[in-house]
Amino acid sequence: MLLSPVTLSVVTPMYNEREAVDHFVARLRPVLDGLGDSYEVVAVDDGSSDATVSRLMQLRAEWPQLRVVALRRNVGHQTALRAGLRAAKGAYVVSIDADLQDPPEVIGEMLAAARREKVDVVYGVRSDRSTDTAFKRQTAGLYYRVMRKLVGPWVSDQAGDFRLMSRAVVDVLNGLPEPRPVYRLIVPSLGFSSAEVPYVRAERVAGETKYPLSKMIKLTLDSVTSFSAAPLKIATWLGLFSFFLCVVLMIVALITWLADAVVPGWTSLYVAVLLLGGIQLICLGLLGEYIGRIYAASQGRPPFLVAFDTAALDVTDSVATPVPGGPLDDDVEAVELAGQAPSRRP
């Protein structure tokens, strides 16, 4: 348990990263030990189904600065990152993934830049993404172009979730009520002073990507609906378009009737019904996305619950004390340390 003030917290969400954990720790620990500042590493297990937690607990026995926060179930990368930010104690907080595509060696440059330039945020900016597939680069480029149009020009087109933030920024983020935060958009939108540190993006060290196409689409949907009402405006324009199209069809039908050239046919009717029906369904779907988020927010359910946090372990009697699991803390249990990862209640 860390008793002294912590200068730097490194938050890393993990989901089924057993194959990458050892590589990640081997790269990260020498970097942090060489900084000369007190630190903690907050490894947030996002409901992994492999041996990620068990291996982290083994590594913690040799690395006391390693802190394991295990969530009760998989809640997604951004929400797991939120759990890590709430748990972090450092004056500066770095968020980084465990796949080593973002090099831990850049953390020292980030910290130095924050102190030298007296800024609150230092973004890790990818200067080279050649290790990513062409499809990944194209879709990522499209995502950031759309976000810059919707959110604002301050969104970097090459900055992901690898960043350093001051305690002031983290406190603001922890106070936000958003149920589905997208930090790569929220952080720049706050307007804190910032700097950038370029780096070359590497290949994933082990395992498979945790951001397949389906999750990329979900991230895009969350990003758009969280930061812009543009989809609702699209629905309005589609409605206007369909209205004017109906007016044109009515005029054509009237002229055809007056000219006594009415020919029974199904094509025009079929096309009109499909077009109007499709537009209506699109509009209802867009409205449903926003209403669904309002409904989820009104329920007030916690976005995550912590099964255990090793920072609460008392080395004297080997019993963990209850810790809050997010916005609500009534579902948190005491945990006993028995040489293995404490079990999570189903």
TrEMBL record:
It is found in: Membrane. Pfam families: Glycos_transf_2. Belongs to the glycosyltransferase 2 family. It comes from the Bacteria. Keywords: Glycosyltransferase, Membrane, Transferase, Transmembrane, Transmembrane helix. It is a multi-pass membrane protein. This is Dolichol-phosphate mannosyltransferase. The chain crosses the membrane at residues 234-257, 269-291. GO terms for cellular component: plasma membrane. It comes from Paractinoplanes atraurantiacus. One of its GO terms (molecular function) is glycosyltransferase activity. Residues 9-171 form the Glycosyltransferase 2-like domain.
